[in-house]
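Handout, section 4.2: multi-component inputs.
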Amino acid sequence: MDFLISFKKKKIEFLKKENIYFFLIIITIFFFDRITKIEIINNYSNGASYINDYINLDLIWNIGIGFGFLSTDSSLIYNFISMIIGIVILYLVYIFIESEKLDKIIYSIIIGGALGNFYDRILYKAVPDFIDIHYSNMHWFTFNIADVFITIGILIFIIKSYFIKN
Amino acid sequence: MKKIIFLLSSLIFIISCSGIKDAGKILRNEKEVTTDEFLVKKKAPLILPPNYEIIPEPGSISKVQEKEEEKIQKILKAPTTDGISDNNSSSIEDSILNRIRK
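Output:
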């Protein structure tokens, strides 16, 4: 019963007017990620496309988690992983509510990216990755725009934690 | 610090980068898809250009021009530059000069 009351309180706090700008950040990142993914799926699904000597566009469907881990054909494991990701995103939202203004901006960036990838997991049962950075034959992990925002958010948070006190 | 640890540990779940491209393909035993695997490109048949017989051979143009110049000179019977020298003066000139001297 106490849990339900505290959940309702958090929900009311989350839907406050002051959070509207942070929602806009989340929605902007989410839709920007979606547009790029749709564009790539529609136009670049037939093999890799050369952009320059360091970047290719190569559509790869990731059915696992980060860095290609836990890629499996088992739908049970896939759904279990998706559930864990959902819980992680919910916890991120919880931290977002509890945070100060600057932290809220950073969490908005991370949540926007995380929701972008989570949406694809639900819709396609896999996440499309397409940015292939390489130097000669050495390839970095193929990633997407949502990953870029998540990484930027976490990097900003770490830098902020070390260099900005209070 | 707890938040940083949480964010870094959650990174692996919320991020979605695929494994290293080539390593993943080798591990999954994927074959490289190439559309022209059995394609044999035939050479186009050799076609001679139009009026091939009329076209002069390389290096023959300058010789032909020289010959033509010689022909023209023969027709005109133009004296060469050596022929205009003082030593080979004509008989008319000599007769004129002799009369003047007298």
